[in-house]
Write a structure and sequence with these properties.
This protein is of the alpha/beta class and 326 residues long. It has twelve helices and ten strands. α2 crosses α10.
């Protein structure tokens, strides 16, 4: 497979936007280069979305917008970098819920999403996708379950972030099917897709934003997702609930965060710019194609949502019996 480099990923994202020329808005953001931290490697779904959003943000504000990939430790390296960034309004982080939930699943996490970082706006909700390698000849969930029974030594799946719901969803799926599945951690979606395409691992779990384009290209086969109803971007892919497994209904999200002590005026400035970008028809359409159901919020609205989701996720983690790890 051709390696997806940072440069080619950026080029693809920029070409996909094809947005009309935007008049520069008077922005309350600092008149300095702006940085968006991403906790996963270039070429994965989180990275592609961040680079895609950076271009209209640059056009709106007239500021240079830099994507800084700080991959590793299931995204927590980027979270720690955000926590330690000066709260001067120049650095934010584009985070999936897979990064934030680490607080519930790791004994020592270098940042606390409740106190060390501050939400700016929700970018959208996302379903978890369960996909299989095209090399195993499986196209549906019943076919995959039958394949598992015939291949007892291959009951593993790759996860884009250990200790997150891309991990737990696969474990929960195995429990529901009555066939325990063993997670194998990967450093983001790009290496997992490569191994799935090559047949080195039979299945994988991650945000649908990580897999949808690869699914359409035939590199992986998404056989079900975690929503109550199919995602807008791929209505042909069934959900686990539709297939008779209602306990596998879990919705994740993507959010922009700033360092905790960032002044409210700068949080508001970032929110105003990001919400305007996310509401652009061209942006909404492309993000939907990537698997994100675009939705924005105020910081207070998202804080309430995060608290509610944390309570539900803790219950799920306790039911699985997962113990926090170092």
């Amino acid at each position: 497979m051709k390696k997806i480099t940072r440069r080619t990923s950026f080029a693809l994202a920029g070409a996909a936007l094809a947005a009309p020329s935007l008049g520069r808005a008077e922005s309350a953001l600092p008149d300095k280069p702006l940085k968006i931290l991403v906790g996963f490697p270039a070429g994965g779904g989180t990275d592609v979305m961040a680079r895609f959003l950076a271009e209209p943000l640059k056009q709106r504000t007239g500021r240079n917008v830099i994507i800084d990939n700080k991959a590793g430790a299931s995204g927590t390296i980027a979270g720690e970098a955000l926590k330690n960034s000066p709260p001067v309004g120049t650095t934010v982080c584009y985070m999936p819920s897979a990064m934030v939930v680490q607080k519930l699943t790791m004994a020592s996490v270098p940042f606390d999403p409740m106190t060390d970082i501050a939400p700016i706006t929700l970018a959208g909700t996302v379903q978890t996708a369960f996909c299989v390698s095209p090399t195993i000849g499986v196209n549906t969930l019943p076919e995959y379950i039958a394949w598992l029974k015939q291949n007892p030594t291959r009951h593993s799946f790759g996860t884009t972030a250990l200790g997150s719901f891309t991990h737990f969803f696969g474990v929960m799926a195995g429990r529901e099917f009555g066939i325990p599945l063993e997670p194998v951690p990967y450093r983001g979606a790009a290496p997992l897709v490569a191994d799935l395409q090559g047949g080195h691992i039979a299945a994988g779990c991650g945000g649908i934003t990580d897999f949808l384009e690869h699914h359409r290209a035939g590199k992986v086969k998404v056989i079900f997702t975690s929503g109550l109803k199919p995602t807008t971007s791929a209505p042909e892919i069934p959900t686990a609930t539709q297939l008779g497994y209602p306990k596998l209904n879990i919705l994740g999200w993507y959010v922009f965060f700033a360092p905790a002590k960032t002044p409210p005026a700068l949080i508001d400035a970032w929110g105003n710019e990001l919400r305007a970008v996310l509401k652009m028809p061209e942006v909404d359409r492309k993000l939907t194609e990537l698997g994100l159901d675009v939705e924005t919020s105020t910081p207070a609205q998202f804080s309430q949502r995060m608290a509610t989701d944390f309570a539900r996720w803790k219950t799920i983690i306790d039911e699985i019996g997962y113990k926090p790890t170092n």
